[in-house]
Design a protein that fits this description.
603 residues; alpha/beta; Serine Threonine Protein Phosphatase 5, Tetratricopeptide repeat; membrane; CAP/MinC_C
């Protein structure tokens, strides 16, 4: 036995110099693992306490208390030197490092915050948290008993942290209960954050925007219940899964129907922005890439949110904030999916005995027993094996062809045309029979509409009608053509705007417009202007021929996701010169900017 004087702490430590110590605390290889685990537990506990200070959750508070108990246990294992025999340590290493001081201060702050949180929670629900409050009241006394041993913390840490040959242990993974709680709380953060801001701005705008926002709110609440259910039970069958998704899908359908019924609304772009992007909530059915699905839906609605920004940025900033709040909601939803459900919705309830499935789900049937095999009936005799006979027949050599029949000229189809007049082979259609498809298409036929609603002309579901005519139009009128096919529309007079949406093989002839002419989701359409048009917008359209007049040579053409676009320029002879719009581009990086130029077709 030997003695070493600690000059920094002013006390004597009795150190056992025995080499063969059976106490696991005497092994220097174990100390870095305890210290690293302690620091990881403190980091995780700080995050839990920070969340609990914002809003108290009984389940998460229990996790925090258990984690704090683990911190105290790890600290006792690492730093209680009075009951531990250690190898000799040089006197100059007995100094309190900044790392140890910081770790002790963080533990003290966590203890104070956690005590206050437990007191607040006990006042709101005394019966539920009585045991937690009693355990918490005993912790300061235990902490004071350990203060005497904390003075020697730096000596142990300095000695074993100086050994760089020891690799740090991997930190422990969070428990299943913590992941479940964080998944639900993460979705609640979206509902209470950007979605709440979107709802508040929608109610401020009022009208149809506020009515549609109610459906959006119900859709997110239904999905929050679905995500919470996924943390409580295992994945159900497809039939029950569709039944559980029905509340969310009903709200999505209501949002889209509300937009179709209010096409004459002054906030039609607002309604369309939500209607086009709300299918992002279908990410729970997408695997293995739910995150990109949300981004795709966000991009689909961005066409209309850009219209809202362009129309209202100088009129009312509330509408601009409304559009940004909705885009931020979908952006944070994508980040949430990337963090908790990267490859699809996680059903993490399996294996948790304390959390039985909820009543709507019912009990999952046990797996069937493995099939049994009767080994006694299986013979290993090769003479009785049919495969042996097959191989014997294959290995005959040239004699294997003696049973083949000779194909004569009258049996060959390329020499005998009469053999080629038989019935054609049956080909199954991809989506059922032709008759069924025709019946479904016939049931979707709607009556044509040609009416004027205030300042808006509504022309819908016209088919093979070449005599559509809009007369006596005013400069503030809007002409809207929807789902028409094989028809021709003539607009006489000067109007504000003309929109063709989901039209096929239609033609448009007009005098002049004040704002723009727009083609959205169209196929094989053409237009001719007799007067002036400032802007032509083309979006998701395949095939668009634009005949311009001499007064419209200063037109601006904005195209996106479109193909087969041609501009016809007039000549003095009365003919037209055809110029195609570029569809292929090349982008290069120049410093911190991008340069994009169109590329001629290489074909």
């Amino acid at each position: 036995m030997g003695q070493t004087l600690d000059s920094c702490c002013g006390r004597t430590l009795i150190i056992n110099e025995t080499k063969n110590c059976n106490n696991p605390d005497c092994d220097p290889d174990l100390k870095p693992s305890v210290a690293e685990n302690l620091e990881y537990l403190v980091n995780r506990l700080e995050k839990l306490v920070e969340r609990l200070e914002r809003s108290i959750c009984a389940r998460e508070l229990e996790i925090a208390n258990r984690t704090f108990d683990s911190v105290l246990e790890k600290k006792r294992e690492s730093f209680d030197l009075e009951s531990t025999e250690l190898p000799p340590v040089p006197v100059e290493n007995f100094s309190i490092t900044e790392q140890t001081q910081s770790l002790n201060q963080r533990i003290e702050r966590i203890e104070e915050s956690l005590t206050k949180i437990n007191e607040r929670h006990s006042l709101s629900s005394q019966s539920a948290s009585l045991s937690l409050t009693n355990n918490q009241s005993n912790q300061p006394a235990n902490q004071q008993k350990e203060e005497g041993s904390l003075e020697n913390i730096p000596t142990v840490l300095e000695e074993y942290q100086s050994d760089s040959s020891l690799p740090p242990p991997p930190p422990p993974l969070p428990s299943v209960q913590e992941l479940e709680s964080m998944s639900v709380l993460g979705y609640q953060d979206i509902v209470n954050g950007p979605l709440a801001q979107y709802l508040a701005l929608s109610y401020k705008i009022g009208g149809d925007v506020a009515k549609q926002a109610e459906f959006v709110k119900l859709a997110f609440e239904a999905q929050l219940q679905y995500v919470s259910l996924a943390t409580q039970c295992s994945q159900p069958g497809q039939d029950k899964q569709m039944a559980l998704l029905k509340p969310t899908s009903d709200q999505i359908t209501a949002i889209q129907d509300f937009r179709e019924k209010n096409r004459a609304s002054p906030f039609f772009n607002h309604l369309s922005a939500i209607s086009e992007s709300i299918p992002a909530l279908g990410w729970v059915c997408v695997s293995p890439t739910p995150g990109p699905h949300v981004k795709e839906m966000n991009d689909a609605g961005q066409f209309y949110t850009n219209r809202v920004l362009k129309e209202w940025k100088e009129k009312d900033i509330t509408h601009v904030e409304w559009a940004r709040a909705w885009m931020q909601t979908l952006t944070e939803l994508q980040q949430y999916i990337k963090q908790f459900h990267t490859t699809g919705l996680v059903w993490s309830g399996k294996g948790i005995a304390a959390a039985p499935p909820p009543p709507p789900m019912g009990a999952c049937p046990p797996p069937p027993p493995p099939p049994t095999f009767d080994l006694s009936s299986m013979s290993l005799d090769g003479s009785k094996d049919e495969r042996s006979a097959l191989f014997a027949e294959i290995n005959q050599g040239e004699a294997i062809t003696k049973n083949l029949k000779k194909v004569t000229a009258d049996m060959q189809t390329h020499k005998n045309p009469t053999l080629r007049t038989g019935p054609a082979p049956f080909k199954a259609t991809q989506f059922g029979s032709v008759s069924a498809a025709g019946t479904a298409a016939a049931s979707m036929v709607k009556d044509p509409i040609f009416t004027r609603d205030g300042k808006k002309w509504l022309i819908e579901y016209q088919k093979n009608n070449p005599n559509l005519l809009v007369e006596n139009a005013e400069m503030n009128n809007v002409v809207y053509v929807f789902k028409s096919e094989g028809s021709t529309l003539a607009v006489k007079g000067k109007v504000n705007n003309i929109v063709m949406d989901s039209c096929k093989k239609c033609s448009l002839l007009f005098d002049s417009v004040v704002a723009s002419v727009e083609f959205v989701n169209c196929q094989s359409v053409q237009m001719q202007v007799l007067g002036h048009v400032p802007t032509i917008s083309i979006d998701k359209t395949d095939g668009c021929q634009m005949y311009l007049s001499k007064q419209s040579l200063g037109v601006e053409v904005v195209s996106s996701k479109s193909s087969e676009m041609n501009i016809m320029l007039p000549e003095d002879s009365g003919d037209y010169t055809e110029l195609p719009l570029p569809e292929q581009f090349k982008t290069t990086i120049s410093g911190k900017t991008l340069k994009t130029v169109c590329v001629d077709s290489l074909g």
